[in-house]
Design a protein that fits this description.
single chain, 115 residues, mainly alpha, Serum Albumin, Chain A, Domain 1, 75% helix, elongated, mRNA transport
């Protein structure tokens, strides 16, 4: 910010761009609102949960959590730390078939909702 005695501060270009971005509604936000309003988001969440259980992903994450706790010691691990350590592994290990099915369902929703 550039300051002056006689006038309010002039925002830098970065500040103007940040303000503009905050006011702009993204396509992702619009789709999310439509998914929630229609109840489809809950259906998609249930689909993902079911598919992850079917493929054994949930069991893998449970094992990874237990191994981390065993390695660090039960009293020395916090939930926040466990989430921080396991989340990247979990996201990376979601099967491509689950991602593809979810993407397909979202695309079909967008087409049917005519967004």
């Amino acid at each position: 910010m550039k300051h002056s005695v006689n006038r309010p501060p002039t925002p830098d270009e970065d500040d103007v761009a940040d303000g503009f971005e905050k006011d702009k509604v993204t396509l992702r936000e619009i789709i999310n609102v439509k998914l929630v309003e229609s109840g489809e988001k809950e259906n998609l969440m249930e689909l993902v949960r079911d598919r992850l259980v079917e493929c054994g992903w949930k069991d893998e994450m449970r094992i990874a959590c237990r191994e981390h706790v065993k390695k660090k010691g039960r009293k020395d691990v916090t939930v926040d730390e466990l989430i921080r350590v396991i989340t990247p592994k979990g996201r990376a290990s979601v099967p491509d078939s689950v991602k593809a099915e979810l993407l397909n369902r979202i695309q079909n929703f967008i087409v049917s909702a005519a967004l």
